[in-house]
Structure formats: C-alpha cells, structure tokens
C-alpha cells in the first residue's frame, strides 16, 4: 500500500514525510492555501531524494502540466478537475485521477473510461476540488470499490486516528492525506509519523497507533 502526504510546501515537510516512511509527496499547483510555486517544488524535488513526487492539477492547460512535470521531475500527475479521458491519455506521465464520491456516483464506469494508474476516491464537497478535510462514507463505499477495474487510493478527512479504520474497511491500494497531518495549517512531523505508523499497522493487521 502506498502512502502519500500531500500539500508539501517546504523541504522540512518533504523530509519529514520521507523519513516517516511515506511513499509519495504531493505538490499542489492548483488554487489552494497549500499551493506551491513550480520553482519551489522543483527545488524540493532536487534536494529531497528517496520519495516519489506527485503534482496535483485542476483543469490546467496540458502544456502547463507537462512543463511542470518535467521541471519538478514528477513521478505522477494527479488530476483533480473535470479533465476528460483524452486529456489524461495525452499527458504523458502516469496518472492519478481523482473522482468525488457522491450521490449517483458510478465508480466502475467512471474509472473504466480513464487510462489511470490509480483512481483516487475523494469526498464530494460542492465548489471544492479536494483538500476538504471531510471523509466520505467508507462503509457505504465498500459496496462498490470491489467493482473498480483497477487500484484505488482513498483521500478525504484522513487522520492518524481514523486512517486504520479506513484501511480495514476499504482495503485500498493507497491513502492520501494533507490537512490531517497539519497543526495550525502547517505540516506537523509528529503527526506525519503517527499517520504512517497507524497506516502500516492497519495494513499489517495490527493495532493502529493513537496520536500522542
């Protein structure tokens, strides 16, 4: 199972994620309080080795996405908007395609249309593309995740205290957290360690670690 710490804006936060055992760090290039400049993300990528890099985009021009991916040495491009399947095919990088879980959502049909390495299931909050801190109904979602044509990642409202439950219910290929490992809007190294430890314990069938 992969663990992604998203909303990375500093070298210290990137190092904390890597050192805690996260597999991926995420740079948000879309409008957000966690948005990072391409230059800053490229510098973090240059200085912090040993962890995968994901760029998060929302309905941005294809050329901008591709240029950013090259400059920041991204391993994945995560698309959080209404990008159509043809756009995903044209990116030229491995894709994580976010899909909001809401009423009437047919994940199997939606996922089948996209050439993505991972489908990311996130909470549906009108007017927001992600990073809401709101969890969707995991037990209800467990009824349809088995029908997904490929691996999926769970995001939305995860914290060190509840990530173990999400993993035990949904058995995802990955998990994605941002606000759940922050204190006063900044990445908290202790919470990142707690989150990764709790996720790994749940993955292995052990008890999750409680936040200090």
TrEMBL record:
Record-linked InterPro entries: Aldolase_TIM (IPR013785), PRAI_dom (IPR001240), RibuloseP-bd_barrel (IPR011060), TrpF_fam (IPR044643)
Catalytic reactions of this protein: N-(5-phospho-beta-D-ribosyl)anthranilate = 1-(2-carboxyphenylamino)-1-deoxy-D-ribulose 5-phosphate
Keywords: Amino-acid biosynthesis, Aromatic amino acid biosynthesis, Isomerase, Tryptophan biosynthesis
Residues of the N-(5'phosphoribosyl) anthranilate isomerase (PRAI) domain: 3-197
Single GO MF annotation: isomerase activity
Major enzyme class: isomerase
Pathway given in the UniProt record: Amino-acid biosynthesis; L-tryptophan biosynthesis; L-tryptophan from chorismate: step 3/5
Coiled coil: none
EC number: 5.3.1.24
Keyword Coiled coil (UniProt): no
Family: Belongs to the TrpF family.
Database matches in HAMAP family: PRAI (MF_00135)
Protein name: N-(5'-phosphoribosyl)anthranilate isomerase
UniProt source species: Anaeroselena agilis
Chain's gene name: trpF
């Amino acid at each position: 199972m992969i663990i992604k710490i998203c909303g990375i804006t500093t070298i210290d936060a990137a190092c904390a994620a890597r050192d805690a055992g996260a597999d991926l760090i995420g740079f948000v290039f879309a409008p957000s309080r966690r948005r990072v400049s391409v230059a800053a993300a490229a510098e973090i990528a240059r200085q912090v080795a040993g962890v995968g890099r994901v760029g998060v985009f929302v309905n941005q021009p294809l050329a901008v996405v591709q240029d950013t991916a090259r400059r920041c040495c991204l391993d994945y491009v995560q698309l959080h908007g209404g990008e159509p399947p043809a756009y995903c095919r044209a990116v030229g990088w491995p894709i994580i395609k976010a899909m909001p879980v809401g009423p009437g959502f047919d994940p199997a049909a939606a996922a089948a249309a996209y050439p993505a390495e991972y489908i990311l299931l996130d909470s549906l909050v009108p007017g927001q593309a992600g990073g809401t801190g709101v969890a969707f109904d995991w037990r209800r979602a467990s009824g349809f995740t088995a029908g997904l044509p490929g691996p999926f990642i769970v995001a939305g409202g995860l914290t060190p205290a509840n990530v173990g439950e999400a993993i035990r219910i949904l058995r995802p290929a990955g998990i994605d957290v941002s606000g759940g490992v922050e204190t006063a809007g900044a990445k908290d190294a202790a919470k990142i360690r707690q989150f990764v430890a709790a996720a790994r314990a749940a993955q292995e069938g052990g008890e999750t670690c409680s936040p200090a």
